[in-house]
Amino acid sequence: MVHAELTVAAVVCIDNRFLVVEEFAHGKRVINQPAGHVETGETLLDAVVRETFEETAWRFTPTGLVGMYHWPHEDGRTTLRFAFCGEIGQHAPDQPLDDGIIAAHWLSAEQLSARDDLRSPLVLQSIADYNDLEALSLDRVKHIHGR
Q1: CA geometry: angle 135, 140, 141, nearest 5 deg
Q2: pLDDT at 110 over 80
Q3: Which DSSP category does 136 fall into?
Q4: Residues with Cβ < 8 Å from 2, sequence gap 6 or more?
Q5: Which member of 34, 131, 132, 142 lies 3.0 to 4.6 Å from 52 by CB, making a disulfide possible if both were Cys?
Q6: How far apart are CA 23 and CA 29, in angstroms?
Q7: Cα torsion through 43, 134, 73, 61, rounded to 10
């Protein structure tokens, strides 16, 4: 049986710079999009809004689905990640960031591709898809309740 971790990520671009977080993960300092696990009872959209605020203190409004990514890890885990593009609104600079988050940064795709400390291959893949593909409408993202 495959156990998949259901995650979301925000792809936010302003002036050719992407919102990313510097964080500790698995004992290393890495760079990632604002991202995290979908909690029980939470929709994908609710999760990406929450995770972005908790990790960056920016209010995020999803506008489209960049892509869906299936990533099998060498240790047997599998990540199923939904990446959403969108806009940011109000910033709450006094908001404490999530445990493990060091800081939020704005970096260009070139700066990110030159780094060797990206948390996963999903970081650059979702940025490439954001740049190269048309985002799907959020109407395509469904949350089904009950039977």
Answers
A1: 100
A2: yes
A3: B
A4: 78
A5: 34
A6: 6
A7: -30
